[in-house]
Amino acid sequence: MPVAPVTRATRRWLTLLVVLPVLAAAGCGYGSQAADDAPPSVAAEGAGVGGLDEVRIGYFANITHATALVGLEQGLFQEELGGTRIKELTFNAGPAEIEALNGGAIDIGWIGPSPAINGYTRSGGSNLRIVAGSASGGVSLVVNPRKVPDAAALAGRTIASPQLGNTQDVALLDYLARHGTTVDAQTGRGDVKVQRVDNKEIPALFERGDVDGAWVPEPVAARLVTAGGKVLVDERDLWPDGRFVVTNVVVSQRFLAAHPEAVEAVLRGSVRTNAWINGHPGQAKASAAAKLKALSGTELPPKVLDLAFGHIEVLDDPLAGTLREEAAHAVAAGLLRDPLLDRIYDLGPLNRVLRAAGLPAVDDAGLGAHRQ
Length: 372
Prior knowledge:
Elements: H1 11-16, E1 54-60, H2 66-74, H3 76-81, E2 85-91, H4 94-102, E3 108-111, H5 113-122, E4 128-137, E5 139-143, E6 158-161, H6 167-178, E7 193-196, H7 202-208, E8 213-217, H8 220-226, E9 230-234, E10 245-252, H9 253-258, H10 260-279, H11 281-296, H12 302-309, E11 312-314, H13 323-332, H14 348-356
Parallel strand pairs: 1-2, 1-3, 6-7, 6-8
Antiparallel strand pairs: 3-10, 4-10, 4-11, 5-8, 5-9
Helix pairs in contact: 2-10, 2-11, 4-5, 6-13, 8-12, 10-11, 10-14
């Protein structure tokens, strides 16, 4: 259900914003390439931000991208952008989205840490900046309990991940290595077969028995559970305090330099959306489900939606301290050499939004492009 419209002079609104307890949020994989443009939920009206006609936003149809799903569905981003139109493109996994960012097909994107690190490293630090956090949690290894009763039974089994080098793929390879399992990162062959499969195809493969489990984001994990799967690993349990970055907001450096006002407008929309999700979890869950249905043409069963939403924490903080560890996982898995992390963050625009809201600034763990 849409929230009441607000003026684009959000500074007054932001001063009234209070920190709300962080609750959950939810989503399901889409195509490995950019999907058809999603229809706008709210029309662009008034003057554009900085004279910009259009901003192109990329995201996944996953619950781990709840900020994008809900903010677009509720029109909160469009309200901040005024007459600057939003063009939406959806992706199955991060590597494809990084290609789109590098190719100029999108300007801003919601994406996992591993493809962001890999893309930044391969470009020599020239293609993107991480400008905000979005979500923690929402990722599990779900298995067929008859075939894989415990971690020791993974040997000889086939486990799916969404795409070579995406965040879940890296986490799976790291977990297998820590449990003494040898897998060639590029081919996926070894003591365990790692099969890279589009998120939307994994539930059917699991139900047919073609894969024995999958390390996947929500709501794919919840779909597998409702199909008889067992959560062998909730990734939150592998991190101190149960928190790790699973989704960040990134922006093309070219777009950030050319259109800083538009970037800040999108970040205002992100902060507003996260606050609304946390303050209205039931309505936010319904909004995310409506957006997913508009994208895929199918409706998530209530049980799947409830499970998925319960595993996600939406937040503005990028949890920069966990990025180094995720980079180390990619190196250990053999997917990345000498990751470049210096100056990967520019949290200045986000911290201006947060300070205007009376909220504490977030930290870049010494990896920022500018002093804050």
